[in-house]
Design a protein that fits this description.
The complex is a heterodimer of chains A (468) and B (463). Chain A is α/β, with parallel strands linked by helices and 468 residues long. Chain A contains 18 helices and 14 strands. Chain B is 43% helix and 13% strand. Classes of the chains: A alpha/beta (468), B alpha/beta (463).
Amino acid sequence: MIEILKEREQQVYEKGESRFDLACEKPSLAGSVSQRACVFCGSRVVLYPIADALHLVHGPVGCAAYTWDIRGSVSSGPELHRMSFSTDLSEREVIYGGEKKLYAALTELIEAYKPRAAFVYATCIVGLIGDDVQAVCARVEAEQAIPVIPVHSEGFRGSKKDGYRAACEALFRLVGKDDETPLSPRSINILGDFNLAGETWIIKEYYRRMGVETASCITGDGRVGEIGRSHRASLNVVQCSGSMTYLAQLMKKTYHIPFKRVSYFGIEDTAEALYTVARHFKDAQVLRNTEELVASEVRRIYPEVERFRTSLEGKKAAVYVGGSFKAFSLVKALRHLGIKTVVVGSQTGNKEDYDYLGEICDPGTVIVDDTNPLELSRFMTEKDVDLLIGGVKERPIAYKMGVAFCDHNHERKIALAGFEGMVNFSREVYSSTMSPVWQFSPARIGREARTAVDADVESTKGHGAARC
Amino acid sequence: MKEARDVTKLQGSDSKAGNFISTRNACKLCAPLGASIVFRGIEGCIPLIHGSQGCSTYIRRYVISHFKEPIDIASSNFSESSAIFGGGDNLKKALDNVGRQYRPEVIGIATTCLSETIGDDVALYLNQYKKEKGGEPIPVLVHASTPSYRGTHMEGYHEAIRAVVEALAEGGPRARHLNLIPGFLSSEDLRHLKEILSAFSTPFTMLPDYSETLDGESWSEYQKLSTGGTTKQAITGMGRAVATIHLGKSAAGPNNAAALLHEKFGVEADYLSIPIGIRQTDLFMDLLSGISGVPVPSRYRRERGRLVDSYIDGHKYVFGKRAVIYGETDFVVSMASFLDEIGVVPVLCATGARTGRFRELLSEAITHRHDEVSVFEESDFAGILDAGRAMAPDIILGSSKGYRLSRELGIPLVRVGFPIHDRIGGQRLLHVGYRGTQQLFDRVVNGLIEHAQTGSAIGYSYI
C-alpha cells in the first residue's frame, strides 16, 4: 500500500476515527507531487476573464505558454484575454535586467491592441533579478493613459492563495475609477464567478428575473469599466470565497459594501444563494420573484435530475477540487443524485472549511488537504469509489483505475452552475458513471471480483449462522 | 543527384516574424518540459523539477492534455527563503520524500529559471546528499540544467538526454549494438522506430523510450511508476555501441549526447533528419542497412511501394497547394521535405526556437519553388497568423496550437506533432517511416478534399 509521508499525516483525516484537527494552509511538501500550482497561477486564474485588458506575463516563456487560452472563461465581446503575451525573457535580460524589454513590450502591445487596462504579472525570475515592475508600469500608465497594474505573482512567494490576494490587490486598483454610470439601488457585484461556459450569464439572468441589477461581475465576462463602477453597488455576492473574499473585504472597508458568501452549484446552494440576495434587499417584490424563480426552476429540472438519480443511487464519489467552497456544494449536489461522498479534499482549504466539511460528511469519509496522486489513488481504492470529481490532472488517475470522472475546474466547457447547471452536472456524472466501457477496465474487473468474493464470504457466514 | 542549393533563396527573416518585441502566443515551451519527457522515458525514473511548485504543476497539466496519462512530476517547491538562501535543503528533502514514496531507480532533476538564477549549485547539493546518506542505497541522480530563459523545450529535451548519458554510459569492449536518439516524437513513432530497428536484426538502445510509459495500458491497480522505458543497464551500455543515430540535425553540436558518446567512448555519430517522407526514410533505412549489413527488409520495401502508389493516386489533389508548417525545428524540416516531395509548397516554415540552422536545413530539404518559401525562426503564433494571411495557404500542418490559425484563415489543420490537446490520440499519431508518411499523406489529401467538398455548392460524391 502507498505510504503517506510522515510530514503529511496531519493533513489527512478519516471522519469518526480520531479527534478532528486537520493541518492545512501549509506550503506543499518538497518532493510531494502536489496538485497545486503557484502564486502566479492564483493571480492568473482570478484576472483571466477580464476580456478587454491586456495580460502580459513578464518572465521566460513557460508561465505564459502554459496558460494560453487554458480556461473556459467566455466573453460576450472582446477576447483579448485569450491571447498569451509574454516578455519571453532570455539569458541576456536575466543578466542585464528586463525593464527595457518590459517597457517596450507593454508600449507596443498597448498600441497594437488598445486594451482598457493592462496587467503585468511578475514571475519568479522577475522577483529575483529585481526589475522595478512598478516603475515601468507607472511610466507606461502615464504615457498611455490607461491603468497599467503590476501583479506581484512571483511563484515562490507562497501558494496559489497568495496569488489570489495579489489579484485582489490589482483589481482594487480598478475599483472606483468610474463614477458616472447610474446604478439601481438593488444592484450587486458578482464576485468570484469566472463565466466558465457562460455560467455568469446564467446567474445574471436569475438576478434579472429577481429584479436585481448586476453592476459588475468580477471577473467573469469581465470589463475594466464595470469593475470601475463596482464600488457603488449595494452588495457583493462572493462565490469563489477562497479567491475573492479579500477583495470583498477591501471594498467593505473602503466603500462600506457588505458581502455575502454563496455558491451556485447544486439545487440547494443555488436557491440559498438567490434567497440570500433577495433577503438582503428586504423588498417584498424581489422576494416574491425569487420564490417564483426557484419554484419554477426546480419544477423544471427536478424530473430530469430524478431520472439520473434512479441509475446513480448508491454510488460512491471522491471529490478533489481547488477551492473548498466548491467541495461543500459538490457533496450536497451529489447527495441529490443519491451518491455518497467518501473522499473529499481541496488544494487551498482553511481550518474553518475543513471543519465544515467534517460536519456535512458521513462518518468514514476521508478528508484531505493538498493531496497527491499516490494518496488520492490510495483513498479511492480503499473507499472503493465509482466516481472522481476533479480537474485535468486528476482525470487520468481516475481513468487508469477504472473510475468515472467529472471535470469540475476552470477548464470545464460545460456550465455546471445554477439550476440548468445541475442538470448538466447530473448528465456529466451519469454519462461517465454508466458508460459500458468500464466492463473492460482491469482495475474495475478486479474490484468487482473482490466485491463478489466478499459477498460470497458474507453469504456463507449468513448460512452458517442460520444452521446454528 | 543532389544539387548544391543557395540557402539565401528561401524568403523571410531568420528572426522573429514581424517586429514585435513581446511573444504573442508562443510557438515553443520551456526547457524543463522537454527534460521531464525524457526522464519519463527511462525505466523507474521520476522527474523532479527544482523550483516553484507551479513549474511542475503546469508542465504536468500540459503534458497530460496530450498523453492523457497520469504524469507524476515532483517539485522541490521553493519558498521565499529558498529563493534567498538557496534551494539545497528543499532539494534534499524532495529527494528523500520522492525516494520514499516512489522508490525510483533514477531521479531526473531539471532545474528551473529560478534555481538557475540564484546560482544553486545542484551538483554540489547532490554530492552532499550522497555523502549524507553514507552507504545507504539511493537512486541514481541525474541533473539536467534547464533554465527556461535558455532555449526551448527542445534544448531541455536534448540536455536531459545528454545528462543521462553522461551520468550512466560506460565504455568497454565494443558490442554489436546501435544507439538511437529519436527526437521528440509521438509514442507511436517510438514504437514504430523500435519495430524498424528490430527488423534489421541489430540490438539497439533507444533513449528516451516513453512509448509505454506515456501511452500505457489500463491498469489493474495504481502504478507508482509506469512500466517501460529505457533501462539503466541499456544506457550504461551506450558507450560500447558501434554507432549512435541521432534523428534531428539541428541539435547536432558538441554538447549533445551523440557527440558526448563519440568524444568519450569513440562511438560513431550519425545525424539524420527525422524520417518523414520517402527521401528521409530512405536515408534512414540505408543507414541502418549500412551499419547492420542487413538489406532493407521486404516489408518496408513493400510499404514504400504502396506509399509511392498512393502518392501517384493522390498527386493531383495536392500539387501546387500551399502549406503553413510550424513546430520544433527538426520536425518542421522533415515535414517540409515530405510536402516538397509530394508537390506541396511549404510557403511558411516557422519555429519558436532559434538554432541558427533552420534556414540551412530547410534549404537542404526543399527542392522546389524556393522563392515562395518563407522561413521564420523565433516565431510565435500571432506572427504566423499575420504572415499567413498574405500567403494564401491551403492547409496547415502542426500541433493543436494552430487551431486559431485554421479558424481565422478558414483552411484545414492537419494535426501533427506536440501538443495535440484538442483531439484524442495525439500520442498514437504516426509520423515516421513509410507507414507514418502514408498516414500523413492520406490525412493531408483528405483534409484538402474534405475542405473542397464542404465548400462545394454541388457536393460531388466521387472524387
